[in-house]
Amino acid sequence: MKITKVIEGHTVLPEIDRERYTEIPGLEGPFRTRSGKVVYYDPKEGRYYDRDSDMYLSHEEYEEYDRASMREGDVSHSLAVRRQAKQANQGRQQRMQQDQKGADMFATIDNAIASTMDLLIQQGMDEAEVREKIYDHLGDAVAAYDMTKGM
Length: 151
Fold this sequence. Notes:
It is built from four helices and four strands; from the N terminus they run ββββαααα. It is α+β, with helices and mostly antiparallel strands. The chain has a four-stranded antiparallel beta sheet, with no helix packed on it. The protein is rod-shaped.
């Protein structure tokens, strides 16, 4: 029978700051990776959650943080890259929401103009007369809007 040499060992990691990294309902942890990063495990998602960046880690990102050879500077750089990506994504989402608000506003204006025109035409006004009345009240903004709609 051949006996293979077994090397056992353990690593002592610094204590987790329990004031900063409190328990999060539904998540397990906090846990410290070998690089010093504190994460939580979400059993429903099956992924680790990074409270500092408010993002879930991919399996590869978690493994990167849990490598014993990872230096603190590497962790900081990786976190900074994730933060930049999150900020860029938030900026895109804000622009999309603003674009949607603008589109909603123009749709509301378009509907209001169409309803007013219909009402005035039903009251016996000529369409040209209706346009003149609307232009009198709303001015150049309606003219510019009509041009964009091809009227």
